[in-house]
Amino acid sequence: MTFATETTDELKSLRDELKRGSRIISLSGLTSIASKAFILSKLQAETQKTFVVVADSNKELETWECDLDFWVQSSKVKGQSSEENQSQTKHQTSQIASLPSMESDVYAGISPHAETLEKRALTLWNLSFSQPNFVVTSAKSLITKTLSPEETRKLGAILKRDEDFPPEELLEKLAASGYVREEPIKNIGEFSVRGGIIDVWSPDAENPVRIEFFGDTVDSIREFDAETQLSTNQLKEIRIVPMRPFSASAKDFKDWAFFARERFSDEKFARNLSDRTQFAAEGEDFSGWEFLIPLVKPQTSSVFNFLKDCIFVFDEPAMIEQTLATFYENTENHFAQITEQGEIGLQPNELFLSIEELREKLEETKRIELRALGKTAAQTDEEFQAL
């Protein structure tokens, strides 16, 4: 049987099961991400649902994103002229969002990579407004706690020409959401201020913008070249996306210092706590603060809160089950270890969904389980109970 015939049969079977309202659908025999992406791109086009692809780790996300993008673009340009293809490609917005997990050990006192924070912030902020065709994410990202969609939306800003937006409020948002002040700005994530003019470079923009205020009113918005600093284009509206998926101001750090002294009042924490409060009490951050700030800025949601009426796709569920089981065990053990050693840290359930919460979330979803080895892998899955 040819690949085309096999995939057509698989697609028809999947479509029929979805129409019957099946909550869990198994698909086996597809051994490459490219073939899985092909089937999912066709199925998504027919159902018009958001598909959330869950991979074992961040390593697979780029491959998933590239392969899905290839099949989605191939489907869109099929049968069109080359001129139409070029026109659509030039003006097309991405319908595939990537949400990687923060791979840093939450109890190691090390901050997550800035690029990962930026990717998470961009995806979550976009999801707080609308859902794309596909979201690719990792098992650990699935259980990582976040701000609510409403709180996430407030991290960024949408400015429109001739409408009011106090510049002081914008500057507060920029600083709290991870932007760095530089003069002049040269890179994404930087901003500068000169009187009533604010320059800023959002992570979703090709070029920085220059926003000129007349009092609290946005008088003009212009793109400009970061090298020459010369304006290139007038805009009616600009989106400013946060650089991290949570905010933290100088006041938040001062509040953290106060509440941390209460939370970790036992003498065994004194030295480790002091290493952090000496910075926080002055309104400054410190290494690893991202995993401690929920003490004063609780994160009570997860990616599930951003996604409605979706179809979740688990790529090799047995592998994902094992990864999560190991992660939960290691995290609990590490928390117990650092507590015994007098190091401060928030409890795992303040940072991640518990296994019970994950099961509860999944009970409310429809999902497709992709297995390369068919029945053998399905039997192995029965040893695990998280999904």
How would you describe this protein?
Helix content is 42%, strand content 18%. The strands form 3 sheets. The protein has a 6-stranded parallel beta sheet, sandwiched between helices. The protein is flat. Helix 1 (3-19) packs across helix 2 (33-47). Mean pLDDT is 90; it is low at 1-5, 81-93 and 375-384. With 387 residues, it is an alpha/beta fold.
Summarize the structure.
The protein has helices at about 5-20, 35-45, 60-75, 80-90, 115-125, 140-145, 150-155, 165-175, 250-265, 270-280, 315-340, 350, 355-365, 375-380; strands at about 25-30, 50-55, 95-100, 135-140, 155-160, 180, 190-195, 195-200, 210-215, 215-225, 230-235, 235-240, 310-315, 365-370. With about 375 residues, it is α/β, with parallel strands linked by helices.
Task: Map the helices and strands.
Blueprint: H1 3-19, E1 24-28, H2 33-47, E2 50-55, H3 61-77, H4 82-91, E3 96-99, H5 114-127, E4 134-138, H6 139-143, H7 149-153, E5 157-160, H8 167-176, E6 180-181, E7 190-194, E8 197-200, E9 209-214, E10 217-224, E11 231-235, E12 237-240, H9 250-263, H10 270-280, E13 310-315, H11 317-340, H12 348-351, H13 355-363, E14 366-371, H14 375-381
Parallel strand pairs: 1-14, 2-4, 2-13, 3-4, 6-7, 13-14
Antiparallel strand pairs: 5-12, 7-8, 8-9, 9-10, 10-11
